[in-house]
User: Which sequence fits this backbone?
């Protein structure tokens, strides 16, 4: 079982330990405003592959959690139309699919999914490390996404390097996913739809 640190009782330690895990190419389970996520450095193919194995998921692309709009512009092409969507939904519970500016292992067909969550902990980590962090729900493929740490599959927890307990998530349901490039809603969740 991986180590578990509570945000409520040990915020600073959770932040520092999570930072070390991510900086060293490790993988952690973490809370967001929507559901619990599993993530690591989105720039590293071995990390992406490891998370696919943990989730028992095929090659479906993951999105990147980033700390703010400046980082969105670093990894995605933000033209006028995309900027309108970005300003409307970030921070928040919507994932936007945009044209990729950088060829990361999570990019597919020239597109990248990005999200700036309402949950400040992961935004601070991303900004502190200047790192796009893989964001995908911390469940086995096909299972329900967890809304508290107790819901995370024990097999998932055994395979990650650290788990952050942030209590029950704010929205307790997944993000909305909007493909801004193709003007399609890919998943209706708790977040805003920009069309």
Assistant:
């Amino acid at each position: 079982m991986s180590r578990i640190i509570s945000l409520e009782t040990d915020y600073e330690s959770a932040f520092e330990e999570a930072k070390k895990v991510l900086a060293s190419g490790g993988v952690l389970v973490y809370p967001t405003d929507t559901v619990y996520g599993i993530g690591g450095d989105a720039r590293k193919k071995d990390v992406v592959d490891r998370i696919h194995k943990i989730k028992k998921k095929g090659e479906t692309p993951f999105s990147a959690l980033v700390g703010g709009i400046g980082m969105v512009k670093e990894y995605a092409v933000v033209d006028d139309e995309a900027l309108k969507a970005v300003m409307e939904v970030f921070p928040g519970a919507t994932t936007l699919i945009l044209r990729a500016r950088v060829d990361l292992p999570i990019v597919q067909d020239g597109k990248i999914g990005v999200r700036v969550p309402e949950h400040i902990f992961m935004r601070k980590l991303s900004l502190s490390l200047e790192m796009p962090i893989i964001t995908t729900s911390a469940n086995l493929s096909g299972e329900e996404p967890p809304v508290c740490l107790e819901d995370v599959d024990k097999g998932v927890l055994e395979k990650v390097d650290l788990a952050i307990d942030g209590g029950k998530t704010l929205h307790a349901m997944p993000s909305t996913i909007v493909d801004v490039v193709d003007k399609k809603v890919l998943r209706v969740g708790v977040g805003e739809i920009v069309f």
Remarks:
- Residues 3-187 form a domain with the DHBP synthase fold (CATH 3.90.870.10).
- The helical segments are 7-23, 45-55, 69-75, 80-89, 120-129, 154-159.
- The mean pLDDT is 95.
- The longest helix spans residues 7-23.
